Amino acid sequence: MDDHQSCRLSVSDGELELAGPPAALRALGRLLRQHAGHFEVAITGGVVAQERTTGPLLVSLQGETTLHFSGGREYLDIIWDALDGVAEQAETADDRAVHRHQHIEYLPGDDYRSPGSVPLVIVADWPDVPQQTMSHFHRDGAGHGRCGRPVSR
After folding, report:
1. Close Cβ partners of 81 (under 8 Å, ≥ 6 residues apart)
2. Rounded to 10 degrees, what is the CA torsion of 96, 90, 49, 15?
3. Nearest CA to 120 among 108, 134, 106, 110?
4. 22-34 and 73-92 helices cross at what angle (nearest 10)?
5. Cα–Cα distance for residue pair 20/7, rounded to 1 Å
6. How many Cα atoms are found within 13 Å in the side-chain-facing hemisphere of 39?
7. pLDDT digits (tens, 9 = 90+) for 90-101
8. DSSP category for residue 6
9. Which of 79, 100, 66, 96 shows the shortest CA–CA distance to 33?
10. Distance between CA atoms of residues 9 and 116, nearest Å
């Protein structure tokens, strides 16, 4: 199995989570950066599709299992940088049981993400480390779904 295929897509209560070991997140980020135009790649639990267009980043779920990114290159960089950044945070963390993550979502006044975007959480995990009860955590300890952020957006 190629590294990027170790990434996993899960959909729960309207929230999307793209998770995987740091090496898999980095491999997926490399693949997405390398392809101009429309590109699709299979991962565990679905497909990641990317389309370079104009305008801000749009994150959407097409069908039940296709995570779709579209936008200009400078906006798609948000996803690519998040995949690399979360992987780096996990690789340098002292506690591998706490899953490093980043939220990608539109907030009012944001010119980089489309208002039509679906919230996405990118999570780095380690398959050889027992998981804690929540998939990821915030420093402030606030609660949302599984990580503590307020559910209302």
Report:
1. none
2. 60
3. 106
4. 160
5. 4
6. 18
7. 988 877 667 889
8. G
9. 79
10. 20
53-86 confidence digits (pLDDT tens): 999 999 999 999 999 999 999 999 999 999 999 9
Report phi then psi at 29, rounded to 5: -60, -45
The helix/strand/coil state of 35 is coil
Bridge partners for 20 per DSSP: 124
* Residue among 49, 76, 52 at smallest CA distance from 65: 49
Tokens encoding 76:
């798609």
d(CA 140, CA 87) in angstroms, rounded, equals 21
Predicted model pTM? 0.81
Run of H or E residues at 150: none
Distance CA 93, CA 82 (A): 16
Tokens of 111: 């010119």
Sign, CA dihedral 67-37-85-144, equals negative
